[in-house]
Amino acid sequence: MMTIKVGIQGASGYTGGELVRLLARDPEVSIQFATSQRFAGQPMSAIFPHLGNGPELICTPLDDLSVVEGCDLVFCALPHVTSMEVVPELLQRGARVVDLSADFRIVEAETYQSWYGVAHKAPQLLSEAVYGLPELTDHAEIKKARLVANPGCYPTSALLALAPLLYNRLIEPDCIVIDSKSGTSGAGRSPSQGTLFSEVQEGFKSYKAVGHRHTPEIEQGLSRLSGEKVSVRFSPHLIPQSRGILTTCHVKPLVQRSGQEWQALYESYYGKGGFVRVLSQGNLPATNHVRGSNHCHLSVIVDERTGWLVVVSVLDNLVKGAAGQAVQNMNIMFGREEAKGLDQLPLFP
Amino acid sequence: MMTIKVGIQGASGYTGGELVRLLARDPEVSIQFATSQRFAGQPMSAIFPHLGNGPELICTPLDDLSVVEGCDLVFCALPHVTSMEVVPELLQRGARVVDLSADFRIVEAETYQSWYGVAHKAPQLLSEAVYGLPELTDHAEIKKARLVANPGCYPTSALLALAPLLYNRLIEPDCIVIDSKSGTSGAGRSPSQGTLFSEVQEGFKSYKAVGHRHTPEIEQGLSRLSGEKVSVRFSPHLIPQSRGILTTCHVKPLVQRSGQEWQALYESYYGKGGFVRVLSQGNLPATNHVRGSNHCHLSVIVDERTGWLVVVSVLDNLVKGAAGQAVQNMNIMFGREEAKGLDQLPLFP
Amino acid sequence: MMTIKVGIQGASGYTGGELVRLLARDPEVSIQFATSQRFAGQPMSAIFPHLGNGPELICTPLDDLSVVEGCDLVFCALPHVTSMEVVPELLQRGARVVDLSADFRIVEAETYQSWYGVAHKAPQLLSEAVYGLPELTDHAEIKKARLVANPGCYPTSALLALAPLLYNRLIEPDCIVIDSKSGTSGAGRSPSQGTLFSEVQEGFKSYKAVGHRHTPEIEQGLSRLSGEKVSVRFSPHLIPQSRGILTTCHVKPLVQRSGQEWQALYESYYGKGGFVRVLSQGNLPATNHVRGSNHCHLSVIVDERTGWLVVVSVLDNLVKGAAGQAVQNMNIMFGREEAKGLDQLPLFP
Amino acid sequence: MMTIKVGIQGASGYTGGELVRLLARDPEVSIQFATSQRFAGQPMSAIFPHLGNGPELICTPLDDLSVVEGCDLVFCALPHVTSMEVVPELLQRGARVVDLSADFRIVEAETYQSWYGVAHKAPQLLSEAVYGLPELTDHAEIKKARLVANPGCYPTSALLALAPLLYNRLIEPDCIVIDSKSGTSGAGRSPSQGTLFSEVQEGFKSYKAVGHRHTPEIEQGLSRLSGEKVSVRFSPHLIPQSRGILTTCHVKPLVQRSGQEWQALYESYYGKGGFVRVLSQGNLPATNHVRGSNHCHLSVIVDERTGWLVVVSVLDNLVKGAAGQAVQNMNIMFGREEAKGLDQLPLFP
After folding, report:
1. Is B270 touching C (CB cutoff 8 A)?
2. Which of B135, B257, B322, C39 has the fewest C-beta atoms under 10 angstroms from its C-beta?
3. What is the phi-psi region of residue C243: left when phi exceeds 0, alpha when psi lies from -120 to 50, beta otherwise?
4. CATH fold of the domain at B154-317
């Protein structure tokens, strides 16, 4: 039996905890180290009491990279900017990297700079990094990659929702409305007034209605699929719940098709048995139907009255939108079955 | 001091309870009766324990209309279809009516039939009924109305968000995306699996992504404002919270204006001191900022990159989206100050 | 018409916001100033967007006490320790004070020191301060007080639940279990990991199972009522909701009585029409039945099988447990009707 | 590799869905059938969309027991009363049974009748049924049992919390206060007004403060442990969350011991590596630390001031409180490792 030796950089955030949850029970994976700036020296079970029955892991400091020696793969769950400072050295030490930050998702360094407000510190890696959205990316590229850029949670939900349409150039490329809603775990575990329970409860709200940083990642992905420049109207919202993203896409078809035809297009594009499940006509997605799992549920509905098409997707932002997709990428990189360690059914209710 | 004698038809739903909450402390209003089909004979405080310190009201049966005698105004909070069976008789007995159902909102009987699947039973009243959205309707019409059709919760949020744009014909009339999100109280108090706590918690979902019955009401309102036929893409969602609607409108301007200019347009349209509050640039609405109050908060933001305009509105679906707006209409009908009895500040957190 | 000129020290916490909500609509009260350490110079509507339609108040710095001149009353909503540094000066400047911190609730300076870990800085005021729980305190004392110590939220819920029993010495004084549950707003608005939405949601928990600082306040109150030393077993818990406290008291009666007799005792103790409502047999309290109001609901149930008595109380921790009770004390201090400005019905759902 | 052929009676409730979630990924278990009265003929994925990626199971009618042939074990997740009508026939057809209802937990038929208000219909099985709480029950008994009565959720939390104390007779047996709090999934999936989202949200409440039917099950279990009659004061509450039970026990020790000594007693009683985890001093349980897992977290704290002892336990009511414990029992019955199929880490946040 193979053993993949992995490390986790930035293990004390929600994504780090989720990586441990998913990897701890995988007999072919051995977690070699976990780092944390704030909690160095503490066991993961103190940082995350729910991991008390998991593996015993003591967090090491972020800057002690000696732990990387002998690792096959490092999951880098650091904030953006910090990540691009660390990743080059991880690669240099011989580890392959799945980076969960935004730092290696955008191919153009200038685009990165204009949205993130800081010059890219490792631009030489941008063309090498493989954007790892396995349902849309050539698996051969992921398999041989040294550095995989793990997609953002919103972009994953939007790209999976729209891929069949853009790939086939079936919609107007400048009339794409992406209205997304996310649970609060996407905002991370750092204390802030805006994500206190008392502020969020009963307080659905709009934030970054214009200019959210996931926009260029979505546009880059859709443009690749369609082969022409795509621009989108993207607005996120905060749901009073912990996990889950639901994205509603309103688009204008260039062709007229029946509901069954759109349905068939989607079913054929994604096939059966994968992580993307196209719901049958009449069913609509809910975030608690994919909670804790790596699945994405999709519905496509035509509004015959107006001619618009609506596509709704849901996924768990910490799994398919982060840690689960990272494990999926690892599986492909190391020649394992794509769904290995990701077969847990969702937790409902 | 004047006393307005009012009755409530259908008092055991959330809207009925909310009407009592708002009216009970008004020294100029006397609640003469409250009816309930399921709870006839029971005191409101048994149906709604939070009203235990309110007025003592014993619910009478729905079909005993003798209680209407002497009433100045009846709030009709019955389900659609039931309402149009009762309203004609209420009027005949001399009471004025604010109807909170959908039955008298749509002017065309055929449109009503095609969306609600049943022939209208009082079509003769449709042209007489005044659509009571006080910020957009001529107050003189409301003041003299025998029958006011109280707007739906989603339509109120959408119409207030888009009125300044349509009234001035500043956007493309066939490219209007209205993405709405509502708390569960809008689904009423009747037991159903879909609105159980265990089903809704952590389960943000899409429902009626196409074909929701509030669509024609929104289109009728926007068409009136602009003077030309407007069609909209409307999709609602269910938020895991009790109260509140947030509506995000994505529209395409026909003219190019700066953020300040759009802001000025909205501020000038709504003025100061009313129930609609245009938030200053940089602030976005949240449902818990209007919880329990009759206010609507709006933000208008231009997406300079794509040219689209985003307008976000929030309101409390049981207050400005139902009972509060009904009281506002009552105030206008009886020549009272518009905000009378509606001056409570929101409950936060 | 009288006008009471009031000021609010520490207006940027939830209690400060709640004081503004309650006072802003009172025609006989004028808010002269509001202070905030963190937000000095900012309007209350920026700190609390839900107050956007309330009075225009710019927060002044905490240490500029010149604003106190001419004020009749200052509500001091500062954290403990800070409060006892400020209160003496407020009194010196001629204002009466309702202090919402714990600093003046405990009569013995040593007891304060042993529970709060710091020597009391104004011990000379401890005997003068009147513990303002109006249902249990002599109103004459409150009326003439310069300094009223506003009770804590947990103590209010426990004392109201147990007063009729202790006053009449009907239960074993050393076998009193007080199991309390509170919403997160009681933990304040300062960012902390433990009160983030993602941590609290679906995460009911025990905290301070032993040694919570409200314990001596409860014991002092119960001992006063019974005239003998009472000790209690008190444990609080955190509910995944914003507002509301529910306290369950398990006690052992010294006498045998029927359910009706216990009910009669409670109804007679509290009478009708006040803020304490004894629910009829068969009904049990829920926090959303008093949400936003100054009421406390109580149930008393005898467990005939074991002989124990159970008393359950609910109140809104920010209203009857803080700001509402402070207003109630103000009303008594200034000779107004006790319920003035506190007649809003609860917000449900 | 062995294959255990199992069936699920009453698969459309939350417990049924949870059994499928846990069993579907177990390579040694084959689910032969699932029955549902309301949803016969429908696939489990229609009843529970989150199981859409699980096994394809079409529900059969409850009364068609032909499906039982060839099954090794039937999980009976029916309501009480219904269960005792079905179980005898299941046994007669040769299947072993784990019954998740209350019907076979109480040894005395008269006690059952007095609490459940109905005469027992299969009293001959009561002495044969093994109460399957594996941490407290002799595994040899479970292993050879034809019929295992799976414990209730509240009793599991209370018995695990108190077992070390009662087994060693260290507390007063008539002064045991058990104050429990449960999420709404324990109330089942049948529509009812009381468990609607709008009613539960922000509405922590007490229910069955006296006389809850789990009381005799708790007393029977504690009496067995101590060898003398134990009576308890038990009151449950409803938490606004879906999953999780937290039970706070307040008891009076007969002996004086330090915190470390109590801690040592608990750690030694439960050992390491099992499903019960005794938290180290200073840590207190939270329901989201065991969400989705079969673990129970415990804390024991001495209140040195009053001499009382507090024990707090948490578990997931659908897992350790129902389906997970049933799988644990199955594992013991069929000679498998006790934790097989139950090694998923909790889902947090």
Report:
1. no
2. B257
3. beta
4. Dihydrodipicolinate Reductase; domain 2 (3.30.360)
